Amino acid sequence: MNYFDLQGIELSAVDSALERFVREQQSCPSGAGVHGRSLWEEVLEHTRSGKRLRSRLVMLAACSNGPHDHEAAAAVAAAYGLLHAAFILHDDVIDRDDMRYGRPSLHAAHAAGAASRGMSDDLATHRGYTRSILAGDLALAAAYRLLLAGTADVPAPAREELQRILHDTVVTTTLGELLDVELSFSPDQATTGDDAGDPREKALRTAELKTAVYTFCAPLQSGALLAGLGADQVAAVGRAGTHLGMAFQLEDDLLGVFGDPGAIGKPVGGDLREGKHTYLMATALASEAASEVKDLLSRACAADDDELSRINLAMRELLTRCGALQATADQIRDHARQARDEIAGAALPGPLGDALAALAEEIGSAR
Length: 367
Fold this sequence. Notes:
The chain is mainly α. The chain has two domains: about 10-50 and about 70-155, no CATH class; about 155-365, Farnesyl Diphosphate Synthase, CATH 1.10.600. About 75% of the residues lie in helices and about 0% in strands. The chain is built from 16 helices and two strands. The chain has helices at about 10-25, 35-45, 55-60, 70-95, 105-115, 120-150, 155-180, 200-225, 230-260, 260-265, 270-275, 280-285, 290-300, 305-320, 325-345, 350-365, and strands spanning about 100, 105. It has a two-stranded antiparallel sheet. Strand 1 (about 100) and strand 2 (about 105) form a beta hairpin. The longest helix has 30 residues, at about 120-150. It is flat. The mean pLDDT is about 90. One of its GO terms (molecular function) is metal ion binding. Belongs to the FPP/GGPP synthase family. Keywords: Magnesium, Metal-binding, Transferase. This is Geranylgeranyl pyrophosphate synthase. Pfam families: polyprenyl_synt.
């Protein structure tokens, strides 16, 4: 997905804010010397990698209503970039994903380095996971600090709201990640540990908490506050952002099975191995093909990479045949439509309203 022209949003000021902040931290005399400096460097590299969608959305909204505080907008955009870096560094450990951005993830790279120096496999893996967790902790702390420092001159009500949004976003996303783990399918029966309620609804709720809020809703609302939009407009932007984030996560779930590894920067099939409780899989398990789906999921949890590729191909055919692929595509289009409805009724400034409407149209027509 190209996300229409978001790649054209200028991030040079965001990069400058990140660079200044990290260099200040690296020069701190109470740091951990060369080890601390290298960890900060890895945080900076992760924050600058990928599509940088969250930073671009902050800048899109912040620049939509005439003159604005460029330094505050850059700092908030950088904070959401750091927040994303923190989450993916931790998520790669939780999901045991060894690839990120088309290269070895941080924990995998450090584990390989430790193994090459003669460390046992178990200790090398632990060393890599430890590095990634600590880098994520550092990025999370930095996000709070950079937002606080960068918005010092923003009027108090808006500044306090920006801080509240960031805090609530971290809490929401953490609890969404917890749901994602706790609701994962057990390898023996491909059922969740909590059988109460519709599994498809629980999958949608997880997607909202884990991804939609921090990817679209919070960055857009933060930028809208910096642009001086009214409370009703900020709220509407948040609702539209939530629907856009839902469509985004549902599409990402599809790519986890149907995607091209070269395009998405990591192998497909990992969600099957981890038993991820996605709307796609919950829908398949509610179909007449449930027994076949359970069998493939049970095999995937212990499969090596070659076997996992074969299982993933079989799962693609099964998800298409049982209607789960179509049902997920329908959900994506429905959330994109709801986002367009929110945007249309919000009387947003032209640049922001047009851009979000185009984004909703692109996401909704992806399948």
